[in-house]
Amino acid sequence: MLVSMGDGLHYGEADVTFYGCGIQTRMSVVELPNGGLLVISPLILTDDLRHELDALGPVRHVAAPNKIHNQGLASFAEAYPESQIWAAPGLPERCPELTFAGVLDDDPHPDWAPVLKQALTRGNIFFSEAVFLHIASRTLIVADLVENLADETVKSGAARQLAKTFHIFGHPLPSPEFRMYTTDAEAAKRSLDHINTWEFDRILMAHGDIITENVHSVLSEVRDFLVSEVTTRSAHRAALYRFFATRQ
Asked: What is the chain's mean pLDDT, rounded?
């Protein structure tokens, strides 16, 4: 079921398995001024989900905000061949079987520029993530930059243990991949400081409970965590993470 957040923003949820860990994931659906829809972090399309989307309007754009949020792209491309599929940096090389309209950057597409702000995170050797601000609802839309897992959003014992190990169980912080592969603390800080100048009252993330309190402080804590993680990392650990990044 799609849930309306008001002002032309909706979300849908499903369970996925990632590296053997079952977790909840969430896609965002934005109503565009031209009457169409932009789908961000698409779920695998089901008949019921397609029926709900079609009731809102035609799917004109589908965006993967980072290169590991791609599980639903193929099903959307098949169901909506007239739509444009937008890739995060690095995704066209990861999914060469898909045809992309282009790669996301800091400039929103003209179709969604009236309703969304957009910026890429930087400083990560594995992925950059496109972060969006839904202007009317004052909602920050993120994928793996912030996770906030709880009992309702972890679907396996392995996922719960991993969330606790990385301190993202009931505590909003970057995903394990985001923190491991961030290597340039200053670049990460600049991009998050820029995003934190936007006006938002809640954070809608792909994984975890929606955050509605102290939202700017949460993003500042994410920034400070990444900076500390990078600047205190041992050379051995940094080399190990670089090796892992080349195997993803």
From this structure: 91
* Burial profile 192-216: b = 16 or more Cβ within 10 angstroms, e = fewer: beebbebebebbbbbbbbebeeebb
Is residue 44 within 8 A of residue 15, CB to CB? The reply is: no
Q: Which two tokens stand for residue 44?
A: 């695998």
Q: How far apart are CA 118 and CA 106, in angstroms?
A: 6
Statement: the pTM of the whole predicted model exceeds 0.85:
yes
List Cβ neighbours of 152 (8 Å cut-off, separation of 6 or more): 24, 209
Q: Residues 132, 124, 229, 157: is their CA dihedral positive or negative?
A: positive
Which two three-digit tokens encode residue 177? Answer: 């991949």
CA angle 199, 214, 174 (to 5 degrees): 90
189-239 per-position pLDDT tens digit = 999 999 999 999 999 999 888 999 999 999 999 999 999 999 999 999 899
